[in-house]
């Protein structure tokens, strides 16, 4: 199954759909609650790129720059 939304993947996995791959920051609450269990840790992907897109007209917007800075620190 291929999905374009982490929420859909997590819902399917938590419902018993099988094994999936998702970002640790998305799965952590489910692992903490015991709803998901990490498996095949030796095959974990170190990193996926995340791309932020915004309209060219907002390129110099201080709010956009601040948000990008927060994203870079968090991820």
Automatic annotation (TrEMBL):
Residues 1-74 form the LysR substrate-binding domain. InterPro entries: LysR-type_TF_proteobact-type, LysR_subst-bd. Gene3D superfamilies: 3.40.190.290. SUPFAM superfamilies: Periplasmic binding protein-like II (SSF53850). It holds the Pfam family LysR_substrate. Belongs to the LysR transcriptional regulatory family. This is Transcriptional regulator. It comes from Ochrobactrum soli.
